[in-house]
Amino acid sequence: MLKCKTCGTVFPGIYVQESSTAAERKAAVHGDPLHTCSRGHMNEYVQDDYMDWS
Q1: Does the predicted model carry a pTM greater than 0.70?
Q2: Alpha helix segments (H runs only) across 1-54
Q3: Which sequence spans correspond to the domains of the chain?
């Protein structure tokens, strides 16, 4: 999950399975750092911005 840096809306980011390797997780997070929330705000995210709500 990600939280919009502009308006604070929480929206789905990238889903990485719990059984994935560290390399797979790193590749998923670093593949495309730009994400857009439902209100149209585009922000760049780093790995520390992702929330684990499992």
Answers
A1: no
A2: 22-31
A3: 2-49
